[in-house]
Protein 1
Amino acid sequence: MEQPTTVTADESALVAAFEARIAAGESIEPKDWMPERYRRQLIRMMSQHAHSEIVGMLPEGNWITRAPSLRRKMSLIAKVQDEAGHGLYIYCGTETLGVDRHELVAQLLDGRAKYSSIFNYPTLSWADMGVIGWFVDGAAIVNQTILAKASYGPYARAMVRICKEENFHKRQGYEICATLANGTPAQREMLQEAVNRFWWPSLMMFGPSDTDSPNSAELLKWRVKRKTNDELRQRFINLTVPQAAAIGVTLPDPDLRFNAETNNWEFGEIDWAEFFQVIGGNGPCNKERIAARQKAHDDGAWVREAATAHAGKQRRDVQAA
Amino acid sequence: MATDATAANGIDTDGQWGLWEVFTQAGKGAPHEHAGSVHATDAEHAMQNARDVYARRGEAVSLWVVPAEAIIASAPSDAGPFFDPGNDKAYRHPQFYKVPRGVRVF
């Protein structure tokens, strides 16, 4: 990285100028001076986000061969391909901070990097494809709509692109749910069972309560985040409760009730012990997910080698001519 | 950042393909705008990857891919003095000129 030689001598003035730019709503671009801590926080957050997109392909890829119709299968393939694209957008943004994608992928495969806890839950029935689109992509939209205003330009621009595509994901998921809700008693039961399994893990996607989130204050100050985890979670719940009512499914929380004063749906206690277990590597599918990703990486080795060999041959042919 | 080694053999020392910046044109007559980047071994490969990553929904009618190391960018630290010649000439803007009272703005 090229940095002016005055950085160490006059770091505090640079930090003050940097924070003034953020306070004025300016976006920070890759070659701008930024505190090392800002760079590191962004690399951590953006790479976790990219990894989540890539690992997120696995629970859904699991159902492509068993989709109940050609229409559903086409949608699911397109959605899984989008997730790959989203991972690439964000890896590309992360690389502007001076870290190679190669290194980020290595961190994912050897277990150093984290990704969203939700993808460590199994997808046991077709209804899970609907509920994941509705809840998980719905939660991601709530989160990413705000991240689209993040202070780091490449991250914000990737989010704008992703949000447009996630709307298709959420609608295709909700359509699956609505169809099952109008189906046979067995289909309705399958849907309700999937909702019961995914509701609480979806709420955990927003991360720990802000009082327990070690990174929140700094990220908010630097406008990497614009809303707290709790605010985003509340917004997701407020949006989802009427959607559940519209298709006649019950959200598995006896404490869920509307507060007319705050206009919020109040909800019960989240099992944070479960969240920390899953984040810590002990969720139902952590090992399976990384094993599947490692296998895909290994199985793709010959493609990477062939592409490199082909490019080398083309170059030699040009030189020989 | 890609290095000269990347340009020479399409792959850098730790086994990663070279970096290419991608520009998309949203419609005929529109400018090409930076969309992001891809890794690829050569131009044809970069073009295919760029299509798959940045044009899955008809977002582009044209794509440019450029080796990242071929782009020369102005440095943020020089931005002040470098762009000064454009900032201190108010007479380049229409607001610099007075229009007689009563003449409708044209």
Protein 2
Amino acid sequence: MPSKPVIGVLALQGDVEEHLFALGRAGAQSRAVKSRDQLEGLDGLVVPGGESTTVMKLLRRFDMEQPIVERVRSGMPLWGTCMGMIVAARDVADMKEQPTLGLLDITVRRNAFGRQNESAEVDLLVPALGPRPFPAIFIRAPWIERAGQAVELLASRNGHGVMVRQGNVLGTSFHPELTGDPRVHAYFLAMVEHARIGKRSTAA
Amino acid sequence: MEKTGTDTVKRGLAQMLKGGVIMDVVTPQHAVIAQEAGAVAVMALERIPADIRAAGGVARMSSLELIQSIMDAVTIPVMAKVRIGHFAEAQVLQSIGIDYIDESEVLTPADDKYHVDKHAFTTPFVCGARDLGEALRRIAEGAAMIRSKGEAGSGNIVEAVRHMRAIGDTIRELHAVPQEELVARARDLGAPLELVQQVARDGRLPVVLFCAGGVSTPADASLMMQLGAEGIFVGSGIFKSNDPKKFAKAIVDATTHYEDPKIVADACRSLGDSVAMHGLDVRKLPESEMLATRGN
């Protein structure tokens, strides 16, 4: 029986507890990560919902940007929800000055579905999760305006990409952590398991 | 199927603001300073609470031109205040697309008996509370986020501490008492039984709880987070200090790392010889000048 994977949730700001709880329910050991030291020993990292301008500033101020990028480039899975997907993106449409981590080859448009009055609960078809629609919660949500060739589009809403994967990096415009539906968390944990098996076989 | 304005999306935006600082701003330039410092949202106002207090007279919803100019200046969410019970001001703010409405005791109440029916709106509301009963009454009316009232514009943290402790103590009490006491507890709290049962079961409010009213230093922010606040509103504390940029950044850093005294110390040190707002002794305020007693 392999040990439970250890998943960090970036805890500089945002809906951290909700992800910690959902990851636990999906069978992972989860812990909040606020400093570069706490990145040690993680099998995967979730960047939660929150404010992307705030979190990018804090990542730089507390010297966490490079260590995260290095870990993900060397294979650690990362999943960004809403703000997290913006942070992981290559760039932000019409905001070339906004820094990002550049881990997903996509251009996102912030608040693309509108301000808070347009925030919505949507039944979203995600073929990778099976035929039953996913109860997707969009809050001042971004969409994916451009995706590189290496990026797999997993779901769209009104013709705009809202869930993508590129190798070990997953991005969702919506918030699975606010629902009771564990399927996206389970999908990410499968990515983590895959990476762990890869790491073990390389070590052997 | 798409549903807007549900409790989930209204409460959800507050969940995205957790661990962050929401700053009062009176100009688009302030709003940019706040965003640059790392604020998660701004509250657009004509005057900060300390100046409302000084000016006297009737304080109302801010000019739409000012609010719109602040919405245009930043990408983070923008909140604005309406008078307690003034649902027409709230309808106006909803129509211009504000992200959150604060039904606030800082403005002069429009209704001395009733608050706004917040269920009737797509735009979410945040409301102030001094204790758990007040918080649950506001949630019953549809508030999607609660903040302590504190004593706005005082620069004095004592009232916010009193309110956060009162809310936290009663939640812990409810979590511990046997089921059969809950009806009587609900009666004493003046809150709906269903919400009292929910709080007793979960050991927390069903919505996000921020601290507001009197935060003026990084250590104040750390104190309130350690007392159970999930984020911080700073009203007068930033733009009544003599170096708003430094204060804004220091309060953000101390809120993020509230449980790490070394980082809070760095935040305090970063202020150099800048001075926090002067502040008031709330014990010397006459009852008629206390803002927290407005609305119940």
Protein 3
Amino acid sequence: MSFPWAKHYQPKQPLMRWLDEKLPLPRLVYNAVGAGYPVPRNLNYFWNFGVLAGAALGIQIITGIVLAMHYAANAGVAFGSIESIMRDVNAGWFLRYAHANGASMFLLVVYIHIGRGLYYGSYKAPREMVWLLGVVIFLLMMATAFMGYVLPWGQMSFWGAQVITGFFSAIPLVGDTIRVWLLGGFAPDNAALNRFFSLHYLLPFVIAGVIVLHIWALHIPGSNNPTGVEVKGEQDTVPFHPYYTAKDAVGLGVFMLVFALLLFFSPNLLGHPDNYIEANPLSTPAHIVPEWYFLPFYAILKSFTANFILDAKLWGVLAMFGSILLLFFLPWLDSSPVRSANFRPLYRKFLGVLLLDVLVLGYVGGAEPSPGVILLGQIASIYYFAHFLIILPIVARSERPRPLPNSITEAVLEKHAGLGPTKSAMAN
Amino acid sequence: MAAVDNMVPPGEDAAPFHEHPHDPRRRDFINIAAVSFAGVGAIAIVLPLINQMSPSADVLAQSTTELDLSKIQPGQAIKASFRKQPLFVRNLTPAEIASANKVSLSELRDPQTLAERTKPGKQNWLITLGVCTHLGCVPLGAGEGENRGPFGGYFCPCHGSAYDTAARIRQGPAPKNLTVPEYTFTSDTTVTVG
């Protein structure tokens, strides 16, 4: 499971030795995130985001459990109970704002984490399973975030639930039956709110379970690194602790700073004012938009405006789900043996265009639909799919990568050749 | 072949330990039968777990709505509630009926005549769900002074779907006409929807 030169857990204290024989939990921690896990020595700060995502999940679970002590999942009182959390519960405003903005922080760091994987080819063999489990976590996160947004039972909650469960009614023949089954009624109501609350409480623990698998699968080949070159020997690695626990702590501090800025200075920046109006099934808000992290997918959904064999609505739903399911096939769509985009000049450019494209989709998802915006969304949607299905396979076959370093150590020494310790030694 | 675990003790007859090599063996049969029984039991337990998600009796009990139409003047519309969804009831004017009947079916995205969307002899009563067939918003036009859109029927502010006087989709992203629920006239001025 690890490199042969990994340090072995050798407890010195009699108590720890006793524990190690009965329940080797400290040994597990030592080998997973301690000195027993050798990691490439050249990881940059993009490698912080896995730990940051784990921290964000922890924050969500802790604040969420506390909020559940004050929240009532009943359509008659849910909105009022949120208001009571904000006004009456001691530090309730803090917990709720932390949970709401914590969700945004979680999705933000996960998007960067996914982007890191795309740039440095972390999805490629031998780490395909790590990537696949990551996509599963992403899907679970989206479901959890959506159901959590419904719980305050404001206007956006209600109409978001209406629109998103409406996706299922696009399925031919059985769609309406499925939708009624999912909602437990003909429109979102008490039954839907209750089951969303139950699942919103359950899914984070499912996510935590899949994260364990994600890390387990990662620790078999070990972490990727910015060069994408495999570890060749002991000189290429350092122990996870203290080197990367320290580096992750720095990232965690920056994460907390950004989180605090959002939480204390602009807690409603990413929310919608309409959600402070109680759900009203007879009146639709003028402009229904999902949370920022769903906007690119919402843009793809909205891009289908004409029927073509199937209903435009069904196409939209298929494309939206397809845009995520596509990621499951990524390890096999990109056949280039070179992982890191640092050595793939053409792929690097197209990945930059894809990033822009997703930002454009995000803009389109939140904008009022005018003909120009719809056309922009359609072009951006086509490009999104083209990137993965056409551009990526062609680039992988035709591009000539730059020469790779022989080893991680060679790359590190080369990078620091100009500013080695000799200069400062000479200055002394 | 005598392995350690099926060796015949010395001095005893080996006969009762021999099994006839028929296929499937008795043990396989018991194994398959036991697992199948457990499997059927598991499915029987899953069914109520799935079915509990379906609308409960009290939700279904609200699935019919009685409406009194006597107060609705020609040209007026009301918003009622049917299965927790808005329901539009409109008393069409002769001019609106005429304009709906003037449209040729080939122009329509979801071709239906006004007669198909109303009850015989009651063509002035247009009863539809107030749920846009695009993404489920409530269209404008049923309330006094609301924007009725370029076709004089209903107009959805979310993504700009416009419906005509027969609540048929004419423009915008919605795929279908506003849904006409099942209903019956129980008297000249009352209907039961659902």
Protein 4
Amino acid sequence: MRRDESSLIRWLLIALALGFLGLFLVLPLAAVLAQALGKGTGAYFAALTQPDAWAAIRLTLLVAAIAVPVNIGFGLVASWAIAKFDFRGKSLLISLIDLPFSVSPVISGLVFVLLFGLQGWFGETLRDHNIRVLFAVPGIVLATMFVTFPFVARELIPLMEEQGREEEEAAIVLGAGGFKTFLTVTLPNVKWGLLHGVLLCNARAMGEFGAVSVVSGHIRGLTNTMPLHVEILYNEYDFVGAFAVASLLALLALLTLVAKSALEWRLRDEISALRQS
Amino acid sequence: MPKNNPAKPWRVIPGFGLTLGLTLGWLSVLVLIPLTSLFVMASGLSLDQWLAILADTRVQAAFRLSFGGALVAALINAAAGLLVAWVLVRYDFPGRRLIDAMVDLPFALPTAVAGIALAALYAPQGWIGQLIEPLGIKVAFTPLGAIVAMVFVGLPFVVRTVQPVLEDIDSEVEEAAASLGAGRWQTFTRVILPTLAPALLTGFALAFARAVGEYGSVIFIAGNFPGLSEIVPLLIVVRLEQYDYVGATAIAAIMLVASFVLLLAINGLQRWNRDRLSRGAA
Amino acid sequence: MTSDWSRDAMRLVLATALVVGAAMALAAAIPGAGAAESRTLLNVSYDPTRELYQDLNAAFVKSWKAKTGEDLRINQSHGGSGKQARAVIDGLEADVVTLALAYDIDAIAQRGQIDPKWQSRLAANSAPYTSTIVFLVRKGNPKAIKDWDDLVRPGVSVITPNPKTSGGARWNYLAAWGYELNRSNNDAAKAEAFTTALFHNVPVLDTGARGSTTTFTQRGIGDVLIAWENEAILALKEVPGQFEIVAPPLSILAEPPVAVVDKVVDRHGTRALAESYLSFLYTPEAQEIIARNHYRPRDPDIAKKHAAEFPPVRLFTIDDVFGGWGKAQTAHFADGGIFDRIIVNAKK
């Protein structure tokens, strides 16, 4: 029975919002796709099946496969500590967890060079033991984990705080173990937040450019991730190839995001159906 | 909502020591120790050298563009993000769910790709550029271009923080306001906006924080003129190109402190607001 | 209850550690797998040489196989010259570096990874090919650009990358400076005024040479691109029919040098291989490939064969005019150097 805007204003607002999104979201995406498909779908798929492109795709998936689970683990642990307990310095701790988010990618890459570079703290020791961190996969994984560090945690902390502690306390008092409580009470409550955090974390892990560019070494077929490969192809005048790989990244992300919101909407519909009955 | 009494010495929920220990340990290894290396490196500078860096007009101009541009971009995102969230939550129209999903796209697109795409769009020959260039508006390769890129990367944040709060607003409050004779606009400014304010502020701050450090997309569209359209991260890169590690880390350290203070302020604000709300409810 | 919790938690931590460990091992194994089969060499190079080394590497691998029967894999890394030099300094294990300017290899040598006398180890200043700086203009040369002083005319829009971040841009800048120095009988003040006027006409400073080429050819910005000769010829081939090359009567002799990274090859045991790779660049076969990729070959016979593509330009060297890269770098491109002054005055 809410008194709503007149349909004129309603459509005006929709038009405004869509106009803004069109300008800043749809057009850039369309520009990428137009370039990628500029020479037909044959060239598009040929670009994606080049060995170097394939190596970059594999490396990107591998890096995400390591960085995302680690961040899920950290996010769950950290949000449990922060949301379920009171302690001094909590605000400071949250700010520190957020920090990688606002650090410029240039700096995120640089700090690992300062640590593991040959002129850095551990560089010579690592080289003497023949361990490669920088300009190899471990360095890329580290930089990616740094950049995506806050995403799961910052999605979960407010959610868990909002849900309070009563349910967990009740479960514990009733004799459930801490881990069981976490699995059966906390986790189901935050699963949508967790899913959203994981998707964001994954999208960022696969798309990170600046920080990874500093630590990768750009060795073709070995240490180029998809975003770096895009840059290389672009610099080789292979615009179709560059935007084909870029569009693959965008489409991967878009598909997961659509799947996620479809799930969420469905759940919401179920809930409202339950409420009405 | 009854709050756990902080003074209570005995905790029902187990695992505090373990989870906090793991959190602090992992945070130190992955974030704090690497960032410390920055400050150690930068500490090689004398006070005079620090002052020289701060007094450099080129450094000042870069900080003005990075922070000023990010501020403008975050303001645009706050207004547009609120509008988008409102439309997505309140109205039904074809393609709504697809658009809802697309909002996170700037997150997934590598920043360099975003920069190339935006530069291609806004260049004089581009789809948008050829429309606005005759009007005398130059976006690509000007400071305005940097702001466009910053709006793009910060776009998801306001929408995503405002959206859930907007969904939770009790329609009864609005109905009550309406039945008391408030117009739609009055209801919005007096009832809805104050409720949204904290989320809006958080989203604004997040968009700002993200835009300040942005590099990949901005360098493709900004023009990169020293003192004019050069951002701080580029200044760091320029120093590195001259093998001036200390100078680069010094600027990085200043940036890092600025963003940390910013985050502390955001989180403090959020906490203060939550306390205020819970006190109001009690 | 507490022990229950911690046992479960420990299990979780262990499982996570196991998964991460396995994934890490897999990650380490993937690059290793390719490397184990055959000997590898890593060539860390600058941006525009991708096509060149693709061809050169294929030829060298073939000739090495014919000579020794050994399979070889040459990995390539490309990026801005300074950025690449920094990566090697920071531990990128390059067996050989092939960069845009001697200054960048000097920077690696200063950190002890290359013998300080590297430049005299190979013929011709360790530069197996040369290039020069030319102009790329739009079809029909509508602004009638013929020489350097046409670039400072009002209304001419000039594209060049940022000398602070691009090796190629430093050659561009020094070529312009050298031109005016020559014209004004070594008047440094005039050279600075000339270069300032030139940068006054520059609307975009891209961070790399390829970035500038893209800005000029793809974005349609500018009337003239100052570029490597090889870069300009390549752009002509990539986008046919839209551009023309104008070679100024006087320009700079660019000598992109190559060097074996001593510390790395000694650890890898690849010195002999790396040295034969670099000497290969001077062979007629490689010189022919170099010429076909639009770089000026050192070999006089090959140069004669391709003379049509490389118009005669009077060339001055950086050693003659600027006293070498070290001096040029400190005077012009260091912080507080002449370029910093020029860029401020150019936008006044």
